[in-house]
Design brief:
mainly beta, Hepatocyte Growth Factor, 8% helix
């Protein structure tokens, strides 16, 4: 793992150990190999510090000295590593600084409970966390593409570490967000219907203000959604979805184009299919057949740290 990584300087205190109340795991390592112990810490999203005792025993802790000053006590033959893994992983973005492939990963919720989420990685700097796969079944501990949704507390924890929403279709068939239909929406730009206030997508009910989809951030079939202005909708009986009622072009608000020719009754391509017409099935993967699915993911970015010497 570390052969391809920049050189790291790890600070440590000799003859210090943490109390067992924070202990979350023990591993045997080669004599005094602090890099091996650090690797075990990085693989456990609850690990915030670690120590090596008797030169071969690597122990992980769920807290750290800066957070809890009473954590440490004197103990010979132990070395406590300081503040090396002190950021808990709360979304897929926490895994952007290491080897990664699409799949299930462990993250921590707002009360530091451990659970698994599905992660997709676009590049070295972008991670998407799956929060919903339509229908609205709650099977958050067992991923089922036809019915999966995280609980609200877990969605809230992920939202606090995310920048974009992405709606897409049939992800499990391609494992590529850009092959299918998709729309990406900046969480920081979502506002109320009037446009006066920012919206918390987990709390609002009704329709949002028009939001413009940027270049490369959306398509349906052959149609590019660049500069398309859409709304989001959410209600008691409807989960959050994109809706194309009164959608328009940011360049020419009077133009809607061929894309919306079959939506005279108004349905959302990414979740609201009550008024679906056959013409929609010709180009939209979310409703192509009885096995089609719709997914909602949240995005995190990674800004690589500048590595220096201590």
């Amino acid at each position: 793992m570390f052969n391809s990584q920049p050189q790291l300087t790890i600070k440590a205190e000799k003859n210090k150990a943490f109390y067992e109340s924070c202990h979350i795991g023990t591993f045997n390592i080669e004599s005094g190999n602090i890099a091996d112990c650090l690797e075990h810490c990085l693989e456990n999203c609850r690990c915030q510090s670690f120590q090596i005792c008797q030169n071969t025993k690597c122990q992980l802790c769920s807290s750290h000295k800066q957070e809890n000053s009473s954590l440490l006590h004197e103990k010979k033959d132990c070395i406590y590593a300081i503040d090396n893994c002190d950021e808990l992983i709360r979304s897929c973005g926490g895994y952007l600084d290491r080897h990664r492939e699409p799949g299930m990963y462990q993250v921590v919720d707002s009360v530091n409970g451990l659970y698994e989420v599905y992660c997709h990685f676009d590049s070295d700097h972008v991670a998407w966390t799956l929060v919903l796969s339509k229908d609205i079944s709650i099977s958050e501990n067992a991923l089922t593409w036809s019915g999966y949704r995280l609980s609200k507390p877990r969605m809230k924890s992920i939202k606090n570490n995310s920048i974009f929403l992405q709606f897409t279709c049939d992800y499990e068939k391609y494992l590529d967000l850009k092959i299918s239909d998709y729309a990406q929406i900046d969480l920081r730009n979502i506002r109320t219907w009037s446009g006066d206030e920012k919206v918390d997508v987990l709390e609002f009910s009704g329709y949002t203000h028009h939001d413009t989809i940027g270049k490369g951030r959306g398509k349906i079939g052959e149609y590019d959604l660049n500069l398309c202005q859409i709304r989001l909708h959410q209600g008691t009986d409807w989960s959050l979805h994109v809706i194309f009622i009164d959608s328009k072009s940011a360049v020419n608000p009077a133009y809607t184009g061929n894309l919306f020719a079959c939506t005279e009754d108004g349905f959302g391509f990414f979740g609201y299919y009550y008024y679906l017409r056959d013409c929609g099935k010709r180009f939209h993967r979310c409703v192509k057949n009885a096995h089609s699915t719709t997914q909602l993911l949240r995005c995190s970015f990674y800004d690589p740290p500048r590595i220096g010497h201590v």
